[in-house]
Specification:
By secondary structure, the protein is α+β, with helices and mostly antiparallel strands. Helices cover 47% and strands 14% of the residues.
Length: 177
């Protein structure tokens, strides 16, 4: 009788200690390193694209006679008549969206009223190093095909997918403004 009581007390004490330790231990905060930025603006060395100032002078310098008239007709034609998405040409950066594994920020390049390129900064540490690169690549491809933020989530990368879509929608909203 004493042995069974001692065994039960020992088991309960051990279980309580294990649960207490698990609840008090948390993973250390790991700084996330962003991958190198892709220059969507095509301006060479400058990896921080400024969307409107860099695009407006380029459109006005490319031909003040017919170039500015063509870009105006592209914008009006891309608002629905020519099958465009109604987006203004330029490079747009969505808001940075945090998730439990880091922050994701999407940038898009719009030409002719269509999304021609998409890039994202994302965490590349711990499990994110194996999950994020293929997930972001798949999301980029879907973005170019869908021409909207209506893309399917990548299995196994739910937080990454949700953050990508929110940031992408913010970039598209900025391109619509």
């Amino acid at each position: 009788m004493r042995r069974s009581t001692a065994a039960a007390v020992g088991t309960l004490t051990g279980a309580a200690l294990i649960v207490g330790v698990r609840l008090s231990v948390s993973a250390p905060a790991v700084p996330t390193a962003a991958p190198p930025a892709v220059d969507l603006a095509g301006s060479g060395q400058d990896a921080d694209p400024t969307k409107k100032p860099s695009k407006k002078p380029a459109g006005s310098d490319s031909g003040s006679d017919s170039g500015s008239g063509d870009s105006g007709s592209e914008n009006s034609g891309s608002s629905g008549e020519a099958g465009g998405t109604g987006l203004a040409d330029g490079v747009y950066k969505g808001s940075a969206v945090k998730n439990p594994y880091g922050t994701i920020q999407v940038s898009i390049k719009v030409q002719g009223g269509k999304i021609t390129a998409a890039d994202a900064t994302y965490p590349t540490t711990a499990d994110s190093a194996t999950i994020n690169p293929p997930a972001i690549a798949a999301l980029k491809q879907e973005t170019l095909q869908a021409q909207s933020a209506d893309v399917n989530a990548v299995s196994g990368a739910t937080f990454t997918s949700e953050s990508y879509v929110k940031s992408l929608q913010a970039a598209i909203d900025e391109a619509n403004a």
